[in-house]
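Chapter review: from sequence to fold.
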Amino acid sequence: MIIHKRLLLILSFLIVTTLNFSCKKQEDLPSEKIKAKKMVLVYMEANNDLRYEALTSINRMEKGAKDIDGVLLVYIKTSSVRSYLLKIKYDPDENRIVSDTVKTYQSTATSDPEFLKDVVNDAQNEYPAETYGLILWSHATSWAPPANAMIKTKSFGRDNGQEMDIIDLKNALPNNLEFLIFDACSMGGVEVLYEFKDKAKYIIASPAETIAESFPYQNITPYLFKGSDQLKDIAQAYYDYYNSYTDDRQSATVALINTSELTQLAFEMKSVMLKTKVYGDRFKSENVQRLDFTAGFPVANYDFGDFLNHNWQPDQLKDIYAQLNKVILYKANTSNFLGKPIKAFSGITCYIPDLNDRNLTYYKRLQWYTASGFSIPFEK
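The token string follows.
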């Protein structure tokens, strides 16, 4: 996520909010596990500069949780001392948090993928359901590789400077999700989506950065518990919320992805590559629409459709565009992002590697690299 200074909340308000977690103990909760229709877990890594926005998001979830048909849980960490698993309760007052504490974790590392796995297991074991959804809420930088001398960031989350590798994050998640929502920057890249295609039937993500204000949970929470055919309402509500602003907060990109169609997209991409590319060929990146708008972002995110248009002729792209329309069930973007124009938007982004690219070694580890034929110009 990116933080806009006008989005920062009044500190005194948030201190009060922090102190209003429900102190209801785990043993006070019903012991009988009744299978819910749906359980949604929001995993919030907020032991960083987003802690106040995280608390506000919880308040907005409570406001939107009236008459939901299922269970909404939030794992929240805002300090290095302890963290909590909360069961969200309806409360229209955005000045307090009234949700019940299901479990308290002591001095945990939220950016440890094994810990994330434990939290997801705790949530699903404590509140079994017919279907599950997961929202990953924190900072993110697409598929950016592990920290080294040149790159100081990884892909998801931030806890005391420690972050999670995208492949480790994928391996930590179960395979039983109906949907996965990335409330985090730049996770709508084809490399990220392809990595998570076997984890959830549908993914909602932003190809560009996300404003620190987050998804409008007061509006989308009811939609989290509807059928999969209404997931586009979540993406639309996100777009509508930010598009209604008249200042630089009018900045949003979003897409709903049908993950079952991503394998065929890779097949169509590889078919184009096999017909047109050989070892040593270079991809064109000049004038391709960039969808990373933060200075110093660790990897460039190019609009996928604009990348195709700059590197191939229209008659070579008919099949891949037909498949892209099956992959993307909904897409929307504001005309500008932080004041910079968005002239091309296909719904997802991609990286454009180069033979001498410092990121190429890590990029080769991503499933998209081989499956899509992106490997052809780089492998003898």
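Two observations follow directly from the output. Residues 3-31, 146-155 have pLDDT under 50 and may be disordered. The first strand starts at residue 36 and ends at 45.
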